[in-house]
C-alpha cells in the first residue's frame, strides 16, 4: 500500500479520498480535551451543553476534528513529507457531535519545485472533512514539502530506514521455495 507521494506523483487538480472514516466517540473527544487541557464545558459537560447552548449536546472540540482529518490525509498526502511548512487556513464550518463519522478528501491546488534544493518540491493542498450525511465540517489548506524521486532513491527507496530481519534461534530465516 502506498504511503505518501513523491513530488512527481502529485497532479494539480487531483483529489484523494481518504479511507476509512472515523466515528468520533465521547471517549475520544473527552480524552483529547483532557490531554490538551481544553476544559470548556461545551465539550465535557452534557448538562451545560443541553441547557445553555444552541446545539443541545456536546460539540466535539475543533482541534480534534482537524487532527483526525490531518491524520487521515497522511497516507495520501504527507506520508513521505520532508516538512509540513504551513497551515494557511483552518475553518470549522459546522459542528461535529459524538457518534458522527468523519470522512475527508484532499485536492492538490498547486505545486512547485524548491528554488534552493533540486531534490524536493512544495505541494499546496486543501482538505475538506465531512460527516456521514455529507455536511462539511472543516476545511483547511496547507503547504507540504515533499521529496522528489531522486531524494527517495538516495535514502533507501520506498521504505527508507527499514531494517532487515536477523535470523536467530526463534526464526531461522526466510523459507526457501521447494
Automatic annotation (TrEMBL):
Gene3D superfamilies: Hotdog Thioesterase (3.10.129.10). Residues 153-178 are annotated as: Disordered. It holds the Pfam family MC_hydratase. CDD domains: FkbR2. InterPro entries: HotDog_dom_sf, MC_hydratase, MCH/BMMD. PANTHER family: BETA-METHYLMALYL-COA DEHYDRATASE, MONOAMINE OXIDASE-RELATED. This is MaoC family dehydratase.
